[in-house]
Amino acid sequence: MAIVGGGVAGLSAAWRLRKAGLRDFYLVELEPELGGTARGGLLPRSPHPLGAHYLPSPHPECAALELLLTELGLIIGRDHHGRAEYLPSAIVSAPSERHQVGLLWHEGLYPDRDETPDEAAQWARWREHLLALDARRGADGRRLFRLPVDLSSADLRHLDSISLARYLDDLGLNSWRLRWAVDYATRDDYGCTAAQTSAFAGLHHFLARGLEDNRDGHTLTAPDGNARLIRGLATLVGLAHLGEASDHLSRGTAVTALDDHLSLGTAVTAIDPDAGTLELHNFSTKLRTRLHADAILWAAPRFVLPHVLPPGRDPLAANTLSYAPGWSPASSCAPAREASAPRSRGTTSPSRRTPRNGASATCSPPTARIAASVTPAPSSPTTSRSRATTPRPSAPSARAS
Ligand SMILES: Cc1cc2nc3c(=O)[nH]c(=O)nc-3n(C[C@H](O)[C@H](O)[C@H](O)COP(=O)(O)OP(=O)(O)OC[C@H]3O[C@@H](n4cnc5c(N)ncnc54)[C@H](O)[C@@H]3O)c2cc1C
Q: What is the whole-number distance in angstroms between the Cα of residue 101 and the centre of ligand 1?
């Protein structure tokens, strides 16, 4: 099998194949390193995420992800209710999110300042609606919104045919505050407004892991964000040097390296689905080669696929999908406050690798300002979110971003 793309999707596929006993796969990645949008980087004082920076602990029904986190050594046991217990140094305080109205910053992502009783009632009704959906099971016995999405009950899949904005209209929820908060959520996750997001996808955002304020979850991260998961996955599937990444596996995990199953810095430029061939171009050697495969698994961005398939072979009609820019991450490195603080060069614990007063990463969705400008608000809210990369006992209120 040929796997195109070495992001978390391609590596997860390779992990599943290896677990199924299949080692005969070949992974092709355009960049010189694995990870895609979950890669990390290195600043003088600390590693940092380049894109994906945290993972909410999975819903207990998400067995595959729990298994992966166990193999990666991030789930270290079970409590007496059978709930996963996580490696303490991988847990970070919940994100501190705030929005700006005029010149003032306010906690949270719902602009409640000066709300009317009707607006407050609408917000309460929306929360109750989500709670009810969260508790409900479909006729097939499944939860309505699950990860992966295919495990969701079929009952509400028809909501893919209307927008989330229309769904809110139908519920009579027209408060600009509520619409602004919902719009922020869909822009955050999908890069789309509520009018451009299907009602199923929008509700899935709120409920796939269980309604956030109704669930006893953790936020998992590392100084370089989800790059830690990438390193661990690459090690598990045998595509990384064990010496580099073995600290990310649970004890006793043995993996045979499959170094000759990977091409980095190599683009798949054409696919012939009938012949089962892929044309490869390696950027450093400038060599063009052909790979033969019984099956091809596309784990690169969907919008690239029509460019490598022969004309007319993309199962989706042209222009079915459109893409919006997503997040714009920024990583900054601040001077350490305590010059005498001991610096660790070790790699065993994320908390030791992060200078406590040193680097932090802050991401602000650039679309938040656009959301504000299209909202008929008396004054436009904007948002900011920041998160510390070392575990703390309670949520800090982040003011610098
Ligand atoms: C700034 C940012 C912040 C995010 N924050 C979070 C977060 O905190 N938590 C979270 O869970 N998710 C987050 N996400 C989303 C998460 O990063 C993605 O959902 C996930 O990493 C996507 O993985 P993927 O493998 O599907 O795709 P990608 O990561 O896009 O990987 C696809 C790979 O395919 C390669 N490729 C493309 N074309 C070709 C070709 N022709 N030939 C060979 N290879 C090719 C690419 O180089 C890439 O490595 C964030 C995303 C961004 C951009």
A: 33
- Tell which residue, 22, 30, 17, 38, has the closest CA to residue 263: 30
Q: What is the pLDDT of residues 237-246, one digit of tens each?
A: 999 854 444 4
- Distance in Å, CA 36 to ligand 1 centroid: 4
Atom of ligand 1 nearest to the CA of 31: 47
Atom of ligand 1 nearest to the CA of 269: 41
Q: How far, in Å, CA of 101 to CA of 39, rounded?
A: 34
204-238: per-residue pLDDT in tens? 999 998 787 666 789 999 999 999 999 999 999 99
pLDDT score recorded for residue 263: 93
**Mutate-to-test residue for ligand 1 from 31, 37, 55, 363, highest number of ligand atoms within 8 A of CB:** 37
- Model confidence, pTM: 0.81
Centroid of ligand 1 to alpha carbon of 6 (angstroms): 9
pLDDT above 70 for 399? no
The number of beta carbons lying within 10 Å of the beta carbon of residue 347 is: 13
Report the pocket of ligand 1 as residue ranges, CB < 6 Å: 4-10, 28-31, 36-38, 51-55, 226, 267-268, 299-301, 304, 326-327, 329
Peptide bond into 148 cis (omega under 30): yes
Q: Whose CA is nearest to atom 33 of ligand 1?
A: 5
Domains assigned to the chain: 2-89+221-308 (3.50.50.60), 114-213 (1.10.405)
Distance CA 53, CA 171 (A): 35
